[in-house]
Here is the input.
Amino acid sequence: MTHSHSDLLQLKNLGAASVNILHAVGVHSYEDLKEVGAVEAYIRIKTRGIHVSKVMLYALQGALMEVHWNDLEPDLKERLVMEAEGALANVS
Here is the structure.
């Protein structure tokens, strides 16, 4: 296991499957995730045809904030979804 792989595995909400998905879309470390942000990482995942739910978006944001995804404020979840759906509508 590479250092960057274990770096991502140390984050809240992210397990091996999530980390593998992130690697597939060019996110290899916490710094990469921080740089692209949760919404962009989620958009990359969705545009690659990888089927994930909105929970993945929440998990990515929670990982950046060091909180469990279920503890994110409802308004933050709503903003994340609106931003992601808006961007995905422009990609399609």
Observations:
- The chain is about 70% helix and 0% strand.
